[in-house]
Amino acid sequence: MLPKQQFYGEIIVTKEILIVAGETSADQHGAALVSQLKAASKDVTFFGIGGDKLRRGGVQLVEHAENMAFMGFVEVAKHYWFLRTVYNKVVSECEKRNPARAILIDYPGFNLRLAKELKKREIPVTYYISPQLWAWKEKRIEIIRECVDQMLCIFPFEEQWYHQRGVEATYVGHPFLDGEPNFMERERFLDKHSLSTDTIVLALMPGSRQQEVNRHLKTMITTVELVKRDIGISAIVGKAPAVELPQEIGDKIHIETDTPEMVLKYASIGIVSSGTVSLQSAIYGVPSVVIYKMNPLTWIIANKVTQVSYASMTNLLAKEEVLPELLQNRARPEKIADCLKKWLRSEDLREQAVNRLSEVKRQLGGPGASKKVARLILERLETD
């Protein structure tokens, strides 16, 4: 086993690793992990699926993650043959390269299928950022049990959940707490958008997939107009790298393209898509309304198979609705505006929400998740 004190020393491990990160957040966390692995071993190389951050980190991409950003049963079904082609490309590369290990990050529809194929080829699998089996399709635990030899979880309750089902798992902390890359000071950020330091900023975070932006952004813009009738605010859209915004949006609203996470960090309140960004609301202490709209058939199916009370991880960790959730037909501008105006009109209510978000953040632990994950993976590489 690799001694901890040698972690940042020169470790000779000449091995190639497959990494699959099919979404924007997975690309971010995967890039942080690759950076830590390379800091520990210059002789580890990577290939697989990822976005711009993994590519800049030196990963040879078989497919770009922005081409795979589908969410929902219907949406995935529409792109089945494309996803099948990508899957075959990854398997073909594994045949050529015979990687020492695979690191699969979230993206369960694709990655769990791939894990079964990797098992056949005797390629050991690290699953980093567990599929949310506790929320839906728990029967997939059998694939994890049979095909994944290292499960690394980012939420504290997941470790026990897996242990109770006979799967060895390790809680590593959440990589969102590892640091804030290239965040400028608030004053500079506001000046960049021609806003004064006393501006009340409303963050609009429509999602990292084009289908999410298409379904959410118009509702968000209409909500801004409703709020502005009563309260002076300025809204900024946090634009994810892989999405396009309508050209006319720039005439109505500010847009942050360089570092979209800064919008939420420096906002007073927000409207966020259900998903990763709703947890960032807790980390940055920004009371936000969570919305999500999907294909009607996907919505019907999701309601039948999900086993949890809330859509956002923030509320699941809090075990109560800290962030109002307005999903599907309930995600109407007037309802969203009413929630926002309650916080804007009452500093006490907003402060109560901030305090509850702080309690959720404390559950996530401290920084160091990426470093810990890298160490655990290198230990396995030493013994594989």
Which percent band covers the strand fraction? 15-25%
Helical segment tally?
A: 17
The CATH superfamily of the largest domain bears the name: Glycogen Phosphorylase B
Order of helices and strands: EHEHEHHEHEHEHEHEHEHEHEHEHHEHHH
Largest sheet: 7 strands, parallel
Q: Which structural category do the helix and sheet elements fall into?
A: alpha/beta
What shape does the CA trace take? globular
Please render the helix and strand layout as text.
Blueprint: E1 15-21, H1 24-40, E2 44-50, H2 52-56, E3 60-64, H3 73-78, H4 80-97, E4 101-105, H5 108-120, E5 125-128, H6 141-147, E6 150-153, H7 156-163, E7 169-171, H8 186-192, E8 201-205, H9 210-228, E9 234-238, H10 249-252, E10 254-256, H11 261-265, E11 269-273, H12 276-284, E12 288-292, H13 296-305, H14 313-318, E13 325-327, H15 333-345, H16 347-363, H17 369-383
Task: Provide a descriptive summary of the structure in words.
The protein has about 375 residues and is an alpha/beta fold. Helix content is about 45%, strand content about 15%. It folds into 2 domains: about 5-180 and about 365-384, 3-Layer(aba) Sandwich (Rossmann fold); about 185-365, Glycogen Phosphorylase B (Rossmann fold), CATH 3.40.50.2000.
